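new request in #modeling-help
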Amino acid sequence: AVKFVTNTTKESKRNLMVRCNEQEVFTSLSAARSLLLQKQHRPLLLVEDSALEDFTGIDTSEPNAVVIGLAPDHFNYQMLNKAFRLILSGAPLIAIHKARYYKRMDGLALGPGPFVTGLEYATDCKATVVGKPENTFFLQALSDLGCRPDEAIMIGDDARDDVGGAQNTGMLGILVRTGKYREGDENKINPPPHLTCDSFPDAVEHILKNLL
Amino acid sequence: MADMDWPGCAKSLKGVILDMCGVLYDSGEGDGVAIQGSVEAVKKLQTSDLQLRFCTNETQANREKFVAKLGRLGFDISVPEVFSPAPAAVAVLKERGLRPHLLVYDGLLPEFDTVDKTNPNCVVIGDAADKFSYENLNEAFRVLLGLEKPVLLSLGQGRYYKETDGLKLDVGVYMKALEYACDLKAEVIGKPSPMFFQSVLDDMGLQPHEVLMIGDDLVSDVGGAQNCGMKGVQVRTGKYRPSDEGHATVTADGTVDNLAQAVDLILNQRN
């Protein structure tokens, strides 16, 4: 069984369902939505417009919580000040994930992680992180699949958030040298990835040959 | 001994260092607004037998412009009395052969006129306010990522400061953001770096125990000063928040309503 998990917060689930069906995709946006509903928060959403549809039905008037995803359009001084003041007045800070950077067409670009860290420092608060590499994120995806962590393997390009997070949950992790991968990333997590390979097809080859 | 505590310790003081934003004035539109009683308080200190210096992490303007603004607010202060991070940073850059990519407010750029900025091998960030756009931060991030030995100099590490329309994020927030993104530690120039305070003490020719620091930032001003052996008093103006009085790690030697009250207490002890 396969589950596609992503921290992407720039696109709604619907945009991602190109060749897979809805049940196969688990996004950190879904995880965030669950949390908001559970706690009945009214969020200030620092989320790209294209991802907003995953939050339809959630009341955003008079916000009493701050939700931060990958939202370069919102990471300007005015918006961050607005979020800062809300948090100072007691609003919880929810980070969809804390990726340090991601790969854009023109190179690497800052992810939400740096801005969440900055706001944590400004307000002396800790954010609740709902996406990778949090254990709860992986466990939720696995429970959908009906398998245990030790029966599962994660393939990803982010050593810390994909592979590290998965292995921390008890899964195996394969790091691929595509996307945001940079030389030496495999040495940055402990324990190191179960395997580091050139690309996703190579990872699948390895699994089919050695792990089934 | 009772005299070692505030305000008794004022009897044996030889110098006072004043933080500026939040103590003398609040920033905001235009020049900002002088805090009530501060102009008079500074005058009293200047006519006393105490040595006086001003210590700021202000990095939106160079010292000349900054001092001119203070003049317009009613203060009579000269550039040599003011210690700010930018000149200290310039000294560090030159000493270490560093060529900076600058992410600072436009008003501060003249401080770096004599610095070689070609082919940057480090990043300097200051309180850039609106210039802390996503693209500008990305550019700084990419410069750091491209360096074999990335160096990030931060002019101060404040979390926020007060403007007339509310609290605003300070350079420290963006320093932490870049530290996280690049997995490095920034070097802080300015308060609360001990080297910075020491440069002021050296200029005064005084020992730490002879000097009192007055500021609105509990950690940077008061904590920073105490770390160097000075006494530190917090004012309840500027970025002060009631929760400061129960802080986990820093306890001010004294807390006063404003600079005017601090100065009256000091001078009363000495008469």
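bot summary: The mean pLDDT of chain B is 95.
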